[in-house]
Write a structure and sequence with these properties.
The chain is about 20% helix and about 35% strand. The chain is of the alpha/beta class.
Length: about 140
């Protein structure tokens, strides 16, 4: 669903229905059929993960994790890219403007590549939750 924002057009909308701990399973099944809706229980902290996933989807944001050489990926602080530009180039520019000029190639793990890892250039388009390691020229 979309709400109207006069200045920018349409914005995504998610309806959050609270207190699912106070209804029957049959009623919950009906609630799940409502479009653009996330049922949850704030009191019991039920279904917060579904709400978070839906927010990422609706806002069309892509999470990219960094992997320093010789280290494990950092899953705590993803680089967030907008859906209209999720290339290695955009990833590099998001980290620091100087990285792109030193880029030799990137190693990518995830659903955007056939091999794990795969060597890619700056035009490669990333998918949500890919892992990237930048290899610099030298």
């Amino acid at each position: 669903s979309s709400g109207i924002n006069a200045e920018y057009g349409y914005v995504p909308c998610i309806y959050v229905l609270n207190k699912i701990d106070q209804i029957s399973i049959e009623e919950l099944d009906l609630v799940y059929k409502i479009p653009h809706c996330v049922p949850l229980s704030a009191h019991h902290k039920w279904n917060f993960d579904d709400l978070l996933e839906r927010m990422w989807d609706y806002l069309k944001l892509t999470r990219i994790y960094t992997k320093p050489k010789g280290q494990l990926p950092d899953f705590n602080a993803p680089v967030v890219l907008k859906d209209n530009d999720k290339t290695i180039e955009a990833f590099c520019n998001n980290l620091h403007k100087s990285i792109l000029k030193d880029l030799k190639y990137a190693l990518v793990w995830g659903s955007s590549v056939k091999y794990q890892p795969q060597r890619v250039g700056k035009e490669h388009e990333l998918c949500d939750e890919d892992i990237v390691q930048i290899i610099k020229k030298h």
